[in-house]
Amino acid sequence: MSEDWGSIRFVKNQFRRFYEAKSKFVKAPTEILRREFGFLSFEGKTMIRHLSFNNEDQLRSAIVENTPAHIYYSSAYYKNPEAEMDKKCWLGADLVFDIDADHIDTACKEDHDNWICKSCGLEGRGRAPQTCSRCGKNSFEEEAWLCDRCLEAAKFEAQKLIDILIQDLGFTPLDLEVNFTGNRGYHVHVKAPMIHKLDQIGRREIVDYITGTGLKVEFHGFSRTRGGASTMADPGWRGRTARAVYDYLSEADEASIQGLKLSSQALKNILEEKSEILKVLREDHSSRILKYLDLKSLQALVEASIKKQASAIDTVVTTDLHRLIRLPNTLHGKTGFMAQRVNLDDLEDYDPLTRAIAFKGDRIRVMVKRAPKFRIGNEVLGPFKDEQTILPVAGAVFLLCRRAARVEG
Ligand SMILES: [Zn+2]
Ligand SMILES: [Zn+2]
Protein backbone atom coordinates (compact mmCIF):
# COMPACT_ATOMS: atom_id res chain seq x y z
CA MET A 1 0.00 0.00 0.00
CA SER A 2 2.62 2.50 -1.02
CA GLU A 3 -0.01 5.05 -2.01
CA ASP A 4 -1.91 4.98 1.28
CA TRP A 5 -1.26 8.64 2.03
CA GLY A 6 -3.02 9.44 5.26
CA SER A 7 -2.98 5.87 6.63
CA ILE A 8 -6.71 6.12 7.39
CA ARG A 9 -6.92 2.88 9.34
CA PHE A 10 -4.13 3.95 11.63
CA VAL A 11 -5.66 7.37 12.24
CA LYS A 12 -9.13 5.99 12.82
CA ASN A 13 -7.66 3.60 15.34
CA GLN A 14 -6.00 6.49 17.15
CA PHE A 15 -9.30 8.37 17.18
CA ARG A 16 -11.13 5.32 18.53
CA ARG A 17 -8.67 4.86 21.38
CA PHE A 18 -8.94 8.54 22.17
CA TYR A 19 -12.73 8.39 22.39
CA GLU A 20 -12.69 5.16 24.38
CA ALA A 21 -10.68 6.97 27.00
CA LYS A 22 -11.94 10.52 26.66
CA SER A 23 -15.53 10.47 25.42
CA LYS A 24 -16.60 11.27 28.98
CA PHE A 25 -15.31 14.79 28.34
CA VAL A 26 -17.62 15.27 25.39
CA LYS A 27 -20.44 17.44 26.64
CA ALA A 28 -23.87 17.39 25.10
CA PRO A 29 -24.98 20.78 23.85
CA THR A 30 -27.79 22.46 25.75
CA GLU A 31 -31.20 20.97 24.91
CA ILE A 32 -29.73 17.87 23.30
CA LEU A 33 -33.21 16.55 22.47
CA ARG A 34 -33.79 19.47 20.13
CA ARG A 35 -30.48 19.22 18.27
CA GLU A 36 -29.60 17.55 15.03
CA PHE A 37 -26.21 15.83 14.89
CA GLY A 38 -24.05 14.99 11.91
CA PHE A 39 -21.12 12.58 11.60
CA LEU A 40 -18.58 12.58 8.82
CA SER A 41 -16.76 9.28 8.61
CA PHE A 42 -13.16 8.66 7.62
CA GLU A 43 -14.20 6.61 4.62
CA GLY A 44 -17.25 8.45 3.37
CA LYS A 45 -17.44 11.78 1.69
CA THR A 46 -21.04 12.54 2.61
CA MET A 47 -22.24 13.62 6.01
CA ILE A 48 -24.57 11.37 7.94
CA ARG A 49 -27.12 13.95 9.02
CA HIS A 50 -30.40 14.01 10.93
CA LEU A 51 -29.01 12.07 13.86
CA SER A 52 -30.57 12.69 17.24
CA PHE A 53 -29.74 11.54 20.77
CA ASN A 54 -31.79 11.35 23.92
CA ASN A 55 -28.98 12.07 26.32
CA GLU A 56 -25.27 12.61 26.74
CA ASP A 57 -24.49 8.92 27.32
CA GLN A 58 -26.17 7.91 24.10
CA LEU A 59 -24.20 10.58 22.21
CA ARG A 60 -20.91 9.41 23.74
CA SER A 61 -21.60 5.77 22.93
CA ALA A 62 -22.40 6.62 19.32
CA ILE A 63 -19.14 8.56 19.05
CA VAL A 64 -17.06 5.65 20.38
CA GLU A 65 -18.91 3.12 18.26
CA ASN A 66 -18.73 5.06 14.98
CA THR A 67 -15.47 6.93 15.53
CA PRO A 68 -16.28 9.71 13.06
CA ALA A 69 -13.60 11.97 11.64
CA HIS A 70 -15.80 15.02 12.31
CA ILE A 71 -18.72 15.50 14.70
CA TYR A 72 -21.22 18.31 14.30
CA TYR A 73 -24.44 19.48 15.89
CA SER A 74 -27.03 22.00 14.82
CA SER A 75 -26.94 25.53 16.14
CA ALA A 76 -30.72 25.23 15.64
CA TYR A 77 -33.34 23.72 17.92
CA TYR A 78 -35.94 21.53 16.20
CA LYS A 79 -39.15 19.86 17.25
CA ASN A 80 -38.09 16.80 15.21
CA PRO A 81 -34.31 16.91 14.84
CA GLU A 82 -34.15 13.46 13.20
CA ALA A 83 -36.69 14.31 10.46
CA GLU A 84 -35.92 15.46 6.93
CA MET A 85 -35.19 19.18 6.61
CA ASP A 86 -38.70 20.27 5.69
CA LYS A 87 -40.29 18.26 8.52
CA LYS A 88 -37.90 19.25 11.28
CA CYS A 89 -39.95 22.21 12.54
CA TRP A 90 -37.41 24.92 13.40
CA LEU A 91 -37.88 26.33 16.89
CA GLY A 92 -34.91 28.68 17.09
CA ALA A 93 -31.13 28.76 16.90
CA ASP A 94 -28.09 29.95 18.80
CA LEU A 95 -26.20 32.83 17.24
CA VAL A 96 -22.94 31.41 15.94
CA PHE A 97 -19.82 33.12 14.64
CA ASP A 98 -17.03 31.46 12.76
CA ILE A 99 -13.57 32.94 12.57
CA ASP A 100 -11.17 31.16 10.28
CA ALA A 101 -7.62 32.15 9.40
CA ASP A 102 -8.62 31.36 5.80
CA HIS A 103 -10.47 34.67 5.73
CA ILE A 104 -7.65 36.68 7.26
CA ASP A 105 -4.78 37.99 5.18
CA THR A 106 -1.69 36.92 7.04
CA ALA A 107 1.71 37.23 5.43
CA CYS A 108 2.69 33.75 6.64
CA LYS A 109 0.43 32.17 4.00
CA GLU A 110 3.30 32.81 1.59
CA ASP A 111 5.49 30.64 3.82
CA HIS A 112 3.22 27.67 4.38
CA ASP A 113 0.42 27.55 1.80
CA ASN A 114 0.71 26.44 -1.79
CA TRP A 115 -1.41 25.70 -4.82
CA ILE A 116 -1.20 23.70 -7.98
CA CYS A 117 -3.14 24.31 -11.17
CA LYS A 118 -5.40 21.34 -11.92
CA SER A 119 -5.06 21.89 -15.67
CA CYS A 120 -1.38 22.51 -16.31
CA GLY A 121 0.32 21.65 -13.01
CA LEU A 122 1.85 25.08 -12.40
CA GLU A 123 2.67 25.50 -8.71
CA GLY A 124 2.93 28.53 -6.49
CA ARG A 125 3.10 29.73 -2.92
CA GLY A 126 0.44 31.46 -0.85
CA ARG A 127 -3.11 31.69 -2.06
CA ALA A 128 -4.11 30.53 -5.52
CA PRO A 129 -4.44 33.33 -8.07
CA GLN A 130 -7.76 34.12 -9.79
CA THR A 131 -6.52 32.55 -12.99
CA CYS A 132 -3.45 30.50 -13.82
CA SER A 133 -0.73 32.64 -15.39
CA ARG A 134 0.34 29.77 -17.64
CA CYS A 135 -2.90 28.24 -18.92
CA GLY A 136 -5.54 30.80 -17.92
CA LYS A 137 -7.75 28.24 -16.18
CA ASN A 138 -9.12 28.88 -12.70
CA SER A 139 -9.23 25.50 -10.99
CA PHE A 140 -6.60 24.85 -8.33
CA GLU A 141 -5.77 22.36 -5.68
CA GLU A 142 -4.96 24.41 -2.60
CA GLU A 143 -3.03 23.35 0.44
CA ALA A 144 -3.60 25.55 3.47
CA TRP A 145 -1.56 25.02 6.64
CA LEU A 146 -1.59 26.74 9.96
CA CYS A 147 1.01 28.40 12.13
CA ASP A 148 1.26 30.51 15.26
CA ARG A 149 0.76 33.71 13.32
CA CYS A 150 -2.48 32.47 11.69
CA LEU A 151 -3.80 31.23 15.00
CA GLU A 152 -2.89 34.47 16.80
CA ALA A 153 -4.59 36.49 14.05
CA ALA A 154 -7.74 34.36 14.39
CA LYS A 155 -7.69 34.76 18.16
CA PHE A 156 -7.39 38.54 17.81
CA GLU A 157 -10.48 38.57 15.58
CA ALA A 158 -12.33 36.47 18.17
CA GLN A 159 -11.35 38.90 20.92
CA LYS A 160 -12.62 41.87 18.91
CA LEU A 161 -15.86 40.01 18.26
CA ILE A 162 -16.34 39.20 21.94
CA ASP A 163 -15.65 42.82 22.81
CA ILE A 164 -18.36 44.01 20.42
CA LEU A 165 -20.83 41.38 21.65
CA ILE A 166 -20.35 42.45 25.25
CA GLN A 167 -19.66 46.19 25.00
CA ASP A 168 -22.02 47.10 22.19
CA LEU A 169 -24.71 44.42 22.04
CA GLY A 170 -25.06 43.91 25.77
CA PHE A 171 -24.47 40.18 26.05
CA THR A 172 -22.77 38.98 29.20
CA PRO A 173 -19.79 36.62 29.33
CA LEU A 174 -22.20 33.96 30.58
CA ASP A 175 -24.14 34.14 27.30
CA LEU A 176 -21.01 33.31 25.31
CA GLU A 177 -19.12 30.14 24.58
CA VAL A 178 -15.77 30.23 22.81
CA ASN A 179 -14.30 27.18 21.14
CA PHE A 180 -11.06 26.58 19.32
CA THR A 181 -12.24 24.84 16.13
CA GLY A 182 -9.45 22.27 16.11
CA ASN A 183 -8.01 23.71 12.93
CA ARG A 184 -7.50 27.34 11.95
CA GLY A 185 -9.89 29.35 14.06
CA TYR A 186 -12.52 29.90 16.69
CA HIS A 187 -16.26 29.58 17.06
CA VAL A 188 -18.18 31.95 19.28
CA HIS A 189 -21.68 30.86 20.28
CA VAL A 190 -24.27 33.16 21.81
CA LYS A 191 -26.74 30.97 23.66
CA ALA A 192 -28.92 33.64 25.25
CA PRO A 193 -32.57 32.57 24.70
CA MET A 194 -33.53 36.07 23.55
CA ILE A 195 -31.71 35.57 20.25
CA HIS A 196 -33.07 32.09 19.51
CA LYS A 197 -35.96 33.31 17.39
CA LEU A 198 -33.94 35.89 15.49
CA ASP A 199 -34.53 35.42 11.76
CA GLN A 200 -31.99 35.62 8.96
CA ILE A 201 -32.48 39.34 8.43
CA GLY A 202 -31.91 40.03 12.12
CA ARG A 203 -28.75 37.94 12.07
CA ARG A 204 -27.63 39.74 8.92
CA GLU A 205 -27.97 43.06 10.75
CA ILE A 206 -25.80 41.80 13.58
CA VAL A 207 -23.22 40.63 11.02
CA ASP A 208 -23.27 44.05 9.36
CA TYR A 209 -22.83 45.74 12.72
CA ILE A 210 -19.88 43.55 13.67
CA THR A 211 -18.17 43.94 10.32
CA GLY A 212 -18.92 47.66 10.16
CA THR A 213 -20.72 47.16 6.85
CA GLY A 214 -22.72 50.11 5.49
CA LEU A 215 -21.43 52.46 8.13
CA LYS A 216 -22.09 56.13 7.31
CA VAL A 217 -19.68 58.51 8.98
CA GLU A 218 -22.18 61.34 9.41
CA PHE A 219 -24.16 59.17 11.82
CA HIS A 220 -21.13 58.39 13.93
CA GLY A 221 -20.21 61.74 15.30
CA PHE A 222 -18.40 63.12 12.28
CA SER A 223 -21.10 65.69 11.65
CA ARG A 224 -21.68 68.84 13.63
CA THR A 225 -25.33 68.89 12.71
CA ARG A 226 -26.35 65.28 13.29
CA GLY A 227 -26.27 63.96 16.80
CA GLY A 228 -23.37 66.08 17.93
CA ALA A 229 -19.76 65.17 18.07
CA SER A 230 -17.98 62.13 19.42
CA THR A 231 -14.62 61.26 20.82
CA MET A 232 -12.39 58.22 20.71
CA ALA A 233 -13.70 57.16 24.12
CA ASP A 234 -17.33 56.95 22.99
CA PRO A 235 -18.99 53.54 23.10
CA GLY A 236 -20.00 51.64 19.96
CA TRP A 237 -18.97 52.51 16.44
CA ARG A 238 -18.79 56.22 17.32
CA GLY A 239 -15.67 55.76 19.39
CA ARG A 240 -14.52 52.85 17.27
CA THR A 241 -14.51 54.86 14.02
CA ALA A 242 -12.57 57.65 15.69
CA ARG A 243 -10.06 55.18 17.12
CA ALA A 244 -9.89 53.42 13.74
CA VAL A 245 -8.99 56.64 11.92
CA TYR A 246 -6.48 57.51 14.60
CA ASP A 247 -4.76 54.12 14.40
CA TYR A 248 -4.83 54.11 10.62
CA LEU A 249 -3.30 57.56 10.23
CA SER A 250 -0.68 56.78 12.87
CA GLU A 251 0.48 53.66 11.09
CA ALA A 252 -0.26 54.06 7.37
CA ASP A 253 2.55 55.02 5.03
CA GLU A 254 2.21 57.70 2.39
CA ALA A 255 1.63 55.22 -0.42
CA SER A 256 -1.38 53.59 1.18
CA ILE A 257 -2.91 56.96 2.06
CA GLN A 258 -2.43 58.00 -1.55
CA GLY A 259 -4.24 54.82 -2.56
CA LEU A 260 -7.44 55.98 -0.82
CA LYS A 261 -10.15 57.73 -2.78
CA LEU A 262 -9.58 61.16 -1.25
CA SER A 263 -10.08 64.58 -2.76
CA SER A 264 -6.78 66.22 -3.65
CA GLN A 265 -7.28 68.83 -0.94
CA ALA A 266 -7.98 66.19 1.72
CA LEU A 267 -4.96 64.18 0.64
CA LYS A 268 -2.77 67.29 0.83
CA ASN A 269 -4.10 68.12 4.29
CA ILE A 270 -3.56 64.63 5.62
CA LEU A 271 -0.02 64.43 4.34
CA GLU A 272 0.90 67.91 5.55
CA GLU A 273 -1.02 68.13 8.80
CA LYS A 274 -1.25 64.57 9.98
CA SER A 275 0.01 65.31 13.46
CA GLU A 276 -2.56 68.11 13.84
CA ILE A 277 -5.35 65.72 12.79
CA LEU A 278 -4.15 63.11 15.26
CA LYS A 279 -4.06 65.76 17.98
CA VAL A 280 -7.67 66.71 17.23
CA LEU A 281 -8.74 63.06 17.46
CA ARG A 282 -6.88 62.66 20.73
CA GLU A 283 -7.99 65.78 22.45
CA ASP A 284 -11.14 67.06 20.79
CA HIS A 285 -14.41 66.06 19.23
CA SER A 286 -13.68 63.92 16.18
CA SER A 287 -16.05 66.03 14.05
CA ARG A 288 -13.39 68.76 14.14
CA ILE A 289 -11.31 66.81 11.64
CA LEU A 290 -13.86 67.89 9.04
CA LYS A 291 -11.77 71.03 8.91
CA TYR A 292 -9.18 68.95 7.05
CA LEU A 293 -11.36 66.49 5.14
CA ASP A 294 -14.61 66.75 3.23
CA LEU A 295 -17.27 64.21 4.21
CA LYS A 296 -16.74 62.01 1.15
CA SER A 297 -13.02 61.74 1.75
CA LEU A 298 -13.66 61.03 5.40
CA GLN A 299 -16.03 58.22 4.43
CA ALA A 300 -13.28 56.67 2.28
CA LEU A 301 -10.75 57.06 5.08
CA VAL A 302 -13.09 55.47 7.62
CA GLU A 303 -13.87 52.54 5.34
CA ALA A 304 -10.18 51.81 4.97
CA SER A 305 -9.59 52.26 8.69
CA ILE A 306 -12.34 50.20 10.27
CA LYS A 307 -11.09 46.84 9.02
CA LYS A 308 -8.81 46.67 12.02
CA GLN A 309 -11.64 47.43 14.43
CA ALA A 310 -14.25 45.19 12.84
CA SER A 311 -14.10 41.44 13.30
CA ALA A 312 -13.40 39.17 10.31
CA ILE A 313 -16.27 36.76 10.84
CA ASP A 314 -17.49 34.36 8.16
CA THR A 315 -20.78 36.06 7.36
CA VAL A 316 -22.40 32.97 5.81
CA VAL A 317 -22.17 30.87 8.98
CA THR A 318 -23.96 33.42 11.16
CA THR A 319 -26.90 33.91 8.83
CA ASP A 320 -27.45 30.19 8.20
CA LEU A 321 -30.36 29.11 10.42
CA HIS A 322 -29.67 25.39 9.95
CA ARG A 323 -25.92 25.31 10.34
CA LEU A 324 -24.15 22.25 11.65
CA ILE A 325 -21.24 23.30 13.79
CA ARG A 326 -18.39 21.30 15.30
CA LEU A 327 -19.07 19.77 18.70
CA PRO A 328 -16.49 20.96 21.26
CA ASN A 329 -14.17 18.45 22.93
CA THR A 330 -14.22 16.25 19.84
CA LEU A 331 -11.42 15.67 17.36
CA HIS A 332 -10.94 17.53 14.10
CA GLY A 333 -10.39 15.00 11.31
CA LYS A 334 -8.14 17.30 9.32
CA THR A 335 -5.64 17.90 12.14
CA GLY A 336 -6.20 15.40 14.93
CA PHE A 337 -6.41 18.39 17.28
CA MET A 338 -9.26 18.82 19.70
CA ALA A 339 -12.01 21.31 19.11
CA GLN A 340 -11.95 22.78 22.55
CA ARG A 341 -13.98 24.97 24.85
CA VAL A 342 -11.89 27.93 25.99
CA ASN A 343 -12.68 29.83 29.13
CA LEU A 344 -13.21 33.49 28.24
CA ASP A 345 -10.67 34.57 30.86
CA ASP A 346 -8.09 32.14 29.47
CA LEU A 347 -8.41 33.17 25.84
CA GLU A 348 -5.62 35.74 25.90
CA ASP A 349 -3.01 33.13 26.90
CA TYR A 350 -4.62 30.15 25.21
CA ASP A 351 -2.19 28.21 23.02
CA PRO A 352 -4.07 25.71 20.87
CA LEU A 353 -0.88 24.01 19.71
CA THR A 354 -0.27 22.96 23.30
CA ARG A 355 -3.71 22.72 24.84
CA ALA A 356 -5.62 21.11 21.98
CA ILE A 357 -3.08 18.35 21.38
CA ALA A 358 -5.02 15.13 21.80
CA PHE A 359 -2.42 12.44 21.19
CA LYS A 360 0.49 11.77 23.45
CA GLY A 361 2.83 8.84 23.68
CA ASP A 362 5.17 6.95 21.40
CA ARG A 363 6.91 8.37 18.41
CA ILE A 364 6.03 7.06 14.99
CA ARG A 365 7.97 6.53 11.80
CA VAL A 366 6.33 8.20 8.83
CA MET A 367 7.10 8.98 5.22
CA VAL A 368 6.27 12.63 4.57
CA LYS A 369 5.30 13.86 1.13
CA ARG A 370 5.54 17.54 1.93
CA ALA A 371 5.01 19.72 5.01
CA PRO A 372 6.09 23.18 6.09
CA LYS A 373 7.54 23.81 9.53
CA PHE A 374 4.95 23.32 12.26
CA ARG A 375 4.78 23.21 16.04
CA ILE A 376 3.33 20.65 18.43
CA GLY A 377 3.63 21.81 22.03
CA ASN A 378 7.25 22.84 22.54
CA GLU A 379 8.54 20.92 19.57
CA VAL A 380 9.08 22.50 16.17
CA LEU A 381 8.93 19.94 13.36
CA GLY A 382 9.80 20.05 9.68
CA PRO A 383 9.87 21.29 7.06
CA PHE A 384 9.81 17.94 5.25
CA LYS A 385 9.90 16.90 1.64
CA ASP A 386 9.83 13.30 0.43
CA GLU A 387 11.58 11.98 3.49
CA GLN A 388 11.25 9.48 6.29
CA THR A 389 11.22 10.79 9.80
CA ILE A 390 10.19 9.86 13.32
CA LEU A 391 7.58 12.14 14.83
CA PRO A 392 5.71 12.48 18.10
CA VAL A 393 2.33 10.82 17.61
CA ALA A 394 0.41 14.14 17.57
CA GLY A 395 2.70 15.47 14.83
CA ALA A 396 2.38 12.25 12.85
CA VAL A 397 -1.43 12.23 13.14
CA PHE A 398 -1.51 15.89 12.09
CA LEU A 399 0.34 15.11 8.86
CA LEU A 400 -1.65 11.92 8.30
CA CYS A 401 -4.95 13.77 8.72
CA ARG A 402 -3.74 16.14 6.05
CA ARG A 403 -2.82 13.21 3.78
CA ALA A 404 0.73 14.56 3.70
CA ALA A 405 2.32 11.47 5.17
CA ARG A 406 1.90 7.72 5.64
CA VAL A 407 2.91 5.37 8.41
CA GLU A 408 6.01 3.33 7.61
CA GLY A 409 6.85 -0.14 8.74
ZN1 LIG B 1 -2.52 26.26 -15.31
ZN1 LIG C 1 0.34 31.12 9.22
Describe it.
- The chain has 409 residues and is an alpha+beta fold.
- 33% of the residues lie in helices and 20% in strands.
- The chain is built from 12 helices and 18 strands.
- 38% of the residues are buried.
- One zinc ion binds next to helix 4.
Write a brief caption for the model:
The chain is α+β, with helices and mostly antiparallel strands. The protein has twelve helices and 18 strands. The protein is 33% helix and 20% strand.
- Architecture of the largest domain in CATH? Alpha-Beta Complex
Q: Give the termini separation.
A: 11 Å
Count of alpha and pi helical runs = 12
- Total domain units: 3
CATH superfamily of the largest domain: DNA primase, PRIM domain
**Ions and ligands:** zinc ion
Strand neighbour order, sheet with most strands: 2-1-3-12
Strand content: 15-25%
The major β-sheet equals: 4 strands, antiparallel
Succession of helices and strands: HEEHEEEEHEEEHEEHHHHHHEEHEEEEHE
Q: What is the alpha-carbon Rg in Å? A: 24 Å
Shape by Cα distribution: globular
Mean pLDDT rating: 93
**What oligomerization state is this entry in?**
single chain
Helix/strand structural class: alpha+beta
Low-confidence stretches: none
Helical proportion?
25-40%
What is the count of β-strands? 18
